[in-house]
């Protein structure tokens, strides 16, 4: 990370573009394995696998910075609860009772949720140019989800899964805002390792209850292993690392704007891997989202809350 220290904003923005790409794949996987892997099992074993992957790299930093972790463990626990434990577990649970398009629609409201919470909790005001960017990007997102017709948007139906997804978005919004307020002075890899470890520990008893009394778990096979590996590495380790770095360097509200890219990436992935048609509204909506991102990120960024890499 040292060679990127001179360009932390460039690295942050690259990571924030990749995060919705990985999350779009996460939504596709969640819908694809809904009949093979129970949502709580998918969430738990995703993080167990992620922890096993990251631990050899992060354990040294955890030992070296243990004194700081011991003094701030409660902060990491709170952040892990809203992110690792809650967000994806709720998303996977929502995927069992609602459609992918509804998940994309609700997930894309993260920028609005984060901007509101950043104002309420941090007093972070949205500039006029940023407000314009939010409006333009929101229009692009609705264009993609509505497939270019108002009737499709009006005709969307909502279910219990949608309410669960709203809760997931709220959880991620709280995490994004608190990430700056409850910043912990440790290296990024150390923080991510502890975030995953504590979040998985909180999720473990929830998984055990579900395993014993409800879902009964799943069978590890050639069908179920690849999705687990994907959600552990890409929307798990990499997306969380990129998001943490982006929020700490450019702020929660600006970082959240990149979530408008999720339905665009989802449409492209469906086109590439599922053979679904890529319509004009995907291209037009994606263009509007990029314009909105340009408006939102053109102002001087918020000063980082803490140093994240050395």
Molecular structure report:
With 310 residues, this protein is an all-alpha fold. It has a domain at 9-123 and 157-250. Helix content is 76%, strand content 0%. The protein contains 13 helices and no strands. It has helices spanning 8-32, 39-64, 66-94, 100-107, 110-122, 128-145, 150-154, 160-181, 188-213, 225-250, 252-257, 262-274, 280-297. Helix 3 packs antiparallel against helix 8 (160-181), helix 4 (100-107) runs parallel beside helix 8 (160-181) and helix 5 (110-122) crosses helix 8. The longest helix has 29 residues, at 66-94.
Order of helices and strands: HHHHHHHHHHHHH
Report how far the terminal alpha carbons are from each other.
6 Å
How would you classify the helix and strand content by structural class? mainly alpha
Number of strands: 0
Low-confidence stretches: 1-5, 300-310
Q: How many helical stretches?
A: 13
Overall mean pLDDT stands at 84
Radius of gyration: 19 Å
Describe the sheet with the most strands: none
Q: What overall geometry do the principal axes of the alpha carbons give? A: globular
Helical fraction equals over 70%
Relative strand content: under 5%
Pfam families: EamA (PF00892)
InterPro entries: AA-Vitamin_Transporters, EamA_dom, EmrE-like
Membrane topology: Multi-pass membrane protein
Family: Belongs to the EamA transporter family.
């Amino acid at each position: 990370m040292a060679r990127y220290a001179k360009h932390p904003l460039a690295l942050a923005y690259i990571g924030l573009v990749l995060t919705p790409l990985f999350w779009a794949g996460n939504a596709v996987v969640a819908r694809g394995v809904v009949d093979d892997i129970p949502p709580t099992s998918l969430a738990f074993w995703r993080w167990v696998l992620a922890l096993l992957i990251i631990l050899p790299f992060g354990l040294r930093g955890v030992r070296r910075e243990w004194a700081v972790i011991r003094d701030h463990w409660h902060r990491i626990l709170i952040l892990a609860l809203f992110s690792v434990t809650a967000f994806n577990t709720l998303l996977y649970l929502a995927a069992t009772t609602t459609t992918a398009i509804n998940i994309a629609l609700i997930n894309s409201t993260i920028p609005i949720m984060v901007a509101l919470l950043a104002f309420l909790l941090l007093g972070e005001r949205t500039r006029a140019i940023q407000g314009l960017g939010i409006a333009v990007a929101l229009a692009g997102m609705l264009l993609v989800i509505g497939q270019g017709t108002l009737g499709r948007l009006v005709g969307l139906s909502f279910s219990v899964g949608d309410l669960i997804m709203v809760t997931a978005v709220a959880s991620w919004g709280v995490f994004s805002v608190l990430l700056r307020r409850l910043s912990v002075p440790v290296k990024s890899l150390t923080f991510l390792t502890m975030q995953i470890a504590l979040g998985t520990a909180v999720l473990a008893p929830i998984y055990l209850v579900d395993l014993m009394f409800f879902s009964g778990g799943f069978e590890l096979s050639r069908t179920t292993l690849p999705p687990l590996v994907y959600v552990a590495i890409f929307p798990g380790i990499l997306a969380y690392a990129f998001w943490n770095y982006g929020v700490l360097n450019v702020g929660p509200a600006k970082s959240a704007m990149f979530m408008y890219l999720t339905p665009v990436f989802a449409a492209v992935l469906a086109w590439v891997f599922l053979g679904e048609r890529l319509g004009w509204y995907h291209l037009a909506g994606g263009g509007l989202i990029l314009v909105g991102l340009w408006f939102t990120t053109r102002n001087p960024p918020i000063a980082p809350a803490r140093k994240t890499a050395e």
